[in-house]
Amino acid sequence: YILKGDIGVTVAEAEIAEYAVTIVQSDNQTITVNCNGVDYTESFIASYGTSYTTTIKSIRGFIAGTLSSSSGTITSDIVISATEAIDNRVTATLIQSDNQTITVINTSDNDTILSEGDNTIVRGDVVKIKLTPKDGFGIGSINIDGSYTLGPKEEEYTYYTLNDSVIISASDAVSTLCTVTIVPTENQNISVV
Q1: How far apart are CA 181 and CA 12, in angstroms?
Q2: 178, 179, 175: which is closest to 99 by C-alpha?
Q3: What is the pTM of this model?
Q4: Residue 29 belongs to what H/E stretch?
Q5: How many CB atoms lie within 10 A of CB 35?
Q6: What is the pLDDT of residues 50-61, one digit of tens each?
């Protein structure tokens, strides 16, 4: 058929369908959806045919869960979630000993100094341990879970990687003072220099 003249045909502009992208966040990790160059961490609306990618990042001490979707094209409403983050922390318990101070510094966490008692550490963190004796004492040996390590030199650090929960202590400091009793005999002078 051939049509001639004004026949009154109107073409309507097509509407592009929009769909909900629901992001379900969970503890200790953050899901980010990139859609059209924009990063989203909360639910949003996207147009049909839009491509997206997702990433997940855990906080320090946790291993990120598995995403329900890592990428795709929007063709309907979608929900993006992840399995629970896995706790990757251990406990380092610091027990001080008499006549010396045990200093433990987590070099993997901005040189955080551990306090006496329980400290939460990320599995695989490296700590440095130093013994400082009080006046009149020599240092003991560093004790990790009942096994004595080599006795460090005074004021030097010993490094240790924490792969499991541990108790950090030290053997007793040794007195470097001694008592000398001098008993003079008859007709003798004793001088101590």
Answers
A1: 113
A2: 175
A3: 0.73
A4: strand 29-35
A5: 18
A6: 999 999 999 999
